[in-house]
């Protein structure tokens, strides 16, 4: 073996050992995105729309969704963390990546160490909605009702660490009104039960609630952003800050991840594809129709994404600790 061949063999062995060696033809078979919530909900909606937009820049391969739901997204995150780091399994999750380490005493994964960060996808407002037969017709009436009927009112969520849980937690601690939580494995079954008058109140992303608000299948009370939304069907909803809930602001973001150890050249291909997908006019239009804002800033880079998640963990830690809810 000459010197050059020896060097190549050594480099190949080292790269294989560290998992850094990639198949140059990647991707050449379907890619799975693990979505840690139920099908038909807001995280699933973002994932399915993104999967379509990713197809073209990823050599035309199919991008399929695996709904690994339950436990406020921690089951799906654990599944993705353990998956083969070959670029064929990715994870799409929302703010749960930042809230799970604060809310759960024990997790089988570490969000800062067990994932490669690929980029933030979007920011999504939330809406405070009620079942069709709930008596209050606007936020002020709702606040009075929650105060008077607190022992009877239940608040649906998609599990501890979900966006709906976070929003509900903040609502209860800001209003100082404890309500009974009803956890689901995702917002799809939660909103289905809300529309069926089985539960009373839900705070959920506009990507799940806009259609139901437009169809008058739920009552809408407020938005969680600090400014009113511009989407025609939601623009008349007040912000919770306008309604006197000082500092109340919850905006949900979604990000794309790969298991730790995925080869760098594969990560680059996926991040490049993500950047193309985020500029896809069809993806942007679908997002805008549901008040979601597609990311364009430095958070669409792996470093920007990771720094943002760290900042979100720092931002939410004191708020969640003050609300005092934890899970095992
Ligand atoms: N986004 C929902 C939540 O966190 C869960 C889901 O996507 O189904 O409340």
UniProtKB/TrEMBL annotation:
<dbReference type="InterPro" id="IPR042100">
    <property type="entry name" value="Bug_dom1"/>
</dbReference>
<feature type="signal peptide">
    <location>
        <begin position="1"/>
        <end position="22"/>
    </location>
</feature>
<dbReference type="Pfam" id="PF03401">
    <property type="entry name" value="TctC"/>
</dbReference>
<protein>
    <submittedName>
        <fullName>Tripartite tricarboxylate transporter substrate binding protein BugD</fullName>
    </submittedName>
</protein>
<comment type="similarity">
    <text>Belongs to the UPF0065 (bug) family.</text>
</comment>
<keyword id="KW-0732">Signal</keyword>
<dbReference type="InterPro" id="IPR005064">
    <property type="entry name" value="BUG"/>
</dbReference>
